[in-house]
């Protein structure tokens, strides 16, 4: 909200979004992707078979190796961003926009090292049963980010200079994220001293697992980066990357609360069941996790689509962010949200494959889906502009989830996934009823007030949202939906 108000949806925001996507690309590939996914099963196996001390030695070796590799990549990228002329990148954007993009990329790239080390700290703490300090770390980054936004107007007048102040605050936030993990690491006796035993069997085992994950994740993340380039090249004017970013932020909120949270929590459970050879237990946990994910993500999808315009206006339409930007962002958000249940399911299902030490299957399926996504991008961007890129992402996620579910059932004999499909259709029907009610109630508040104030914006969002949540939960309990009967009593006990 604060960032959109400071910069609006235009050339400066576009430049920042593309520049920040580069460290996020490495975070997705290395930190939260290949490194943590390959680390958890090996760490769990080392802990069980050789003891906690051997597991900690393995962690130290991986931490040292990861830091050295990423430091080298960081130096190469900063040199390329600062020394090569903008024309070599062949962008159709104005030279000033490209120069700002490259400057921001050089400033933000050190965040790659910070965020990937942070992801490794999260992986070891989650493996040891500690979830709070890793989960609260993104909020710490946001505090620094907002602080940078608050002081930027006092330190600089032009938006091009204000965004550089924010970039410096983000780097400070990355350091704070790491420092926040230190008490939890110390309480659990995790050593942080460097260890250069890169030829140990556990390190080699992790690298064997990690390489296909990197190969599988890299095309996907490169494709995400290409989305930014396609938006820059094929959507006329400025703002396309800004609309995509703001819409994606809103979609990421339920994704983090549902898909990513479930994926993090069940991954150690998957790993233990896989190590014990308990395919029945693994399949049962997988189907239950996917069922809960679907029951929670379907109404989130319907609610976001029904409230796309009023929610975008409430959160973003102030400062330099205009009503036109609200309309464009809401249009993009509606298409992004079509894939929300699939994004959540993928975070869970791919971890089941990783726990079975089968990283090649998600890699191969992901590589094929990259090509599908790229073809859909280039097809849909012309009629739908930026929203076409969001729709392509949603359709590709659905295809990816379907193919992986079929392979998991047939090759790995993980049963119970047909029940997930029935639950998906049931939740879709309930969410459609809920979404229609939310939309009509929001329209009622739109016509009931002639004044367009902050109170009016709040009334267009929160009463419909609360009524929709109550309707969905009530219908789920009335129809005795299994996921509702499993989740709601636990929430009351908590």
SSE topology:
Layout lengths: L1 H6 L3 H40 L1 H32 L11 H14 L2 H17 L4 H24 L3 H29 L13 H34 L5 H36 L3 H28 L1 H9 L6 H14 L3 H16 L4 H25 L1 H25 L6 H32 L5 H25 L3 H12 L1
Characterize the structure shown:
This protein is an all-alpha fold and 494 residues long. It folds into two domains: 1-212, no CATH class; 239-494, no CATH class. The chain has 18 helices and no strands. It has helices at 2-7, 11-50, 52-83, 95-108, 111-127, 132-155, 159-187, 201-234, 240-275, 279-306, 308-316, 323-336, 340-355, 360-384, 386-410, 417-448, 454-478, 482-493.
Condensed summary:
The chain has 494 residues and is mainly alpha-helical.
Key traits:
mainly alpha, globular, 494 residues
Main beta sheet: strand number and arrangement?
Answer: none
β content, as a range? under 5%
The tally of helices reads 18
- How many beta strands in the DSSP annotation? 0
Outline, from the CA principal axes? globular
Tell me which oligomeric state these chains represent. Answer: single chain
**How many distinct domains?**
2
Flag low-confidence runs: none
Helix content percent band = over 70%
User: What structural category do the secondary elements indicate?
Assistant: mainly alpha
N-to-C order of helices and strands: HHHHHHHHHHHHHHHHHH
**Radius of gyration, Cα only, in angstroms?**
23 Å
**First-residue to last-residue Cα separation:** 31 Å
Overall pLDDT: 88
């Amino acid at each position: 909200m604060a960032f959109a108000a400071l910069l609006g949806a235009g050339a400066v925001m576009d430049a920042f979004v593309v520049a920040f996507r580069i460290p996020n690309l490495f975070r997705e590939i290395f930190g939260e992707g290949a490194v943590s996914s390959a680390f958890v099963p090996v760490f769990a196996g080392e802990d069980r078979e050789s003891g906690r001390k051997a597991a900690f030695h393995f962690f130290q070796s991986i931490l040292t190796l990861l830091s050295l590799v990423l430091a080298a990549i960081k130096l190469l990228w900063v040199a390329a961003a600062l020394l090569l002329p903008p024309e070599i990148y062949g962008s159709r954007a104005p030279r000033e926009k490209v120069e700002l993009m490259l400057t921001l990329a050089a400033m933000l790239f050190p965040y790659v090292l910070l965020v990937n080390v942070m992801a490794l700290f999260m992986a070891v703490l989650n493996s040891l049963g500690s979830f709070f300090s890793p989960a609260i770390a993104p909020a710490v980054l946001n505090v620094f980010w907002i602080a940078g936004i608050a002081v930027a107007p006092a330190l600089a007048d032009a938006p091009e200079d204000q965004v550089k102040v924010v970039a410096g605050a983000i780097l400070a936030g990355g350091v704070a994220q790491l420092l926040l993990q230190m008490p939890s690491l110390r309480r659990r006796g995790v050593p942080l001293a460097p260890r250069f035993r890169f030829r140990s069997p556990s390190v080699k085992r992790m690298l064997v697992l990690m390489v296909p994950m990197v190969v599988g994740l890299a095309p996907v993340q490169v494709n995400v980066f290409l989305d930014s380039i396609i938006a820059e090249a094929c959507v006329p004017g400025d703002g396309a990357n800004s609309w995509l970013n703001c819409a994606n932020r809103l979609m990421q909120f339920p994704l983090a609360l549902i898909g990513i949270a479930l994926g993090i929590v069940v991954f150690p459970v998957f790993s233990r069941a896989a190590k014990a050879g308990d395919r029945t237990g693994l399949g049962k946990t997988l189907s239950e996790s996917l069922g809960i994910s679907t029951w929670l993500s379907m109404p989130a999808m319907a609610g976001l689509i029904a409230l796309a315009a009023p929610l975008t206006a409430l959160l973003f339409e102030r400062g330099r962010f205009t009503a036109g930007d609200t309309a464009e962002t809401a249009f993009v958000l509606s298409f992004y949200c079509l894939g929300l249940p699939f994004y959540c399911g993928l975070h869970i299902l791919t971890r089941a494959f990783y726990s079975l030490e089968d990283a090649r299957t998600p890699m191969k399926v992901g590589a094929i889906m990259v090509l599908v996504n790229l073809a859909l991008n280039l097809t849909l961007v012309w009629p739908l502009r930026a929203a076409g890129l969001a729709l392509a992402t949603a359709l590709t996620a659905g295809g990816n989830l379907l193919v992986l579910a079929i392979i998991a059932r047939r090759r790995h004999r993980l049963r119970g996934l047909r029940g997930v499909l029935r639950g998906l259709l049931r939740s879709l029907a309930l969410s459609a009823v809920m979404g229609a009610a939310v939309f009509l109630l929001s329209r009622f508040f739109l016509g009931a007030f002639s004044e367009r104030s902050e109170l009016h914006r709040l009334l267009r969002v929160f009463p419909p949202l609360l009524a929709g949540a109550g309707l969905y939960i009530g219908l789920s309990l009335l129809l005795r939906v299994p996921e509702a009967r499993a989740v709601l009593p636990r929430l009351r006990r908590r």
